[in-house]
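Listing S7. Sequence submitted for prediction.
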Amino acid sequence: MTIKSNRLTAEEYEQNFSDIHPPFDSRESALVEANRCLFCYDAPCTKSCPTGIDIPKFIKQITTDNVKGSAHTIFVSNIMGAGCARVCPVEKLCEGSCVYNLLEETPISIARLQRYATEQALEKKWKLFERKPTTGKRVAIVGAGPAGLSCAHVLSREGIAVTIYEKESKGGGLMTYGIAAYKVTPEFCEAEVKYITSLGGITIEYNQELGVHFTLADLQQNYDAVYLGFGVGLARQLNIPGEELEGVVDAIKFIYDIRAGAYDQVPVGDRVAVIGMGMTAIDAATQAKRLGAKEVILVYRRTQEEMPCTEVELDIAKLDGCRIIWLAAPAMIKGEHGHATQLVCNLMQLGEPDASGRRSPFEMGETCTLEVDMIIKAAGQMPFEALVSGKQLQHTHGKIVTQMNGATNIPGVYAGGDCVNGGKEVVDAVQAGKLGAAAILEYVAGL
């Protein structure tokens, strides 16, 4: 057993990481699907969208060949509507609320229709928004992820000059660096960021990290308001013996390396164990398999009923040949010559629900041992507590405390997205950016 890169041919990598949810292959196919929509009054699909996209309206516009109008309807509510059409867990949001589910029929393919309209806008560079005259006000945003980009676009439309400070060399945040490559390609993410900033009035300063290249005090001094949208990203540690052995990596870094470089340069083991059952765990497991791992095992301490990922995501892992071990929690990692060779797990039972509402696992007193050469930790992410400590920002274990509109305890400083909620969907971050922008507009108007 060994960890190595360049396991597959170029053709195999291309096939394994090609678009997992291909778009409509023709205008006619999109029209057929759009015409299935019942255009419900007080539509449940719109209610279940965190950004409140008027879904019946944009679908109706597609049926009348008003694709540009459809894209505008989407973007006015969610400027990252193109990306969300690819990565949103629609089965538990808009499509999961479609009335066709009650009729035991296939729900409308809302995501594919949204993709149909928005990707044309990106490809054809439709200019769907005009900036209002400049107000002379300046706002700094930390993080060019979904929350920051959403906030920036709303502010810029209202004539505010926005500067985004981004620690990476590319924008997009989680979309660019934290999601499986077969869902969104780096090229698509770059095109989406360019489309958002093409409005004007938005400058992104790359390779600029809060606490390293500038401070919150610097931004407060030089700008009329500040929005913090730097997300989360610290992998939660397992805190078990052997975690320091070579071959034990965190899922965030593993996915980052896949997104940042060529597939053939990312090393993967023969037998890989992935700890966790959230979206990040699924992405890590499926991509490990698609990089050429012979066997991938997902290890989760609860049952399928309690898993954080959706059934659709789980099915992707199963179709890729990943195996799942339920009711098992990592207890120890054994190794030889400094390399991980075995994962010892405690077998678990479920008791009463914990604070999250899921039943708490407890040890049965038995163990199982997996022969592995690589272990990917995907047991959750932690906020950047060190980043917010000592800055007068009120926070709870690193999660910034805000009011409903994103206002922090410091006047003129707002926050939203994963750095506040601890990690939710891209669409939730987009909505947080909108709410923060609305509050900032009200704040700077009073200066």
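Caption to Listing S7: primary sequence and predicted structure tokens for the chain studied. Residues 40 and 56 are 7 Å apart (CA to CA). The first strand starts at residue 138 and ends at 142.
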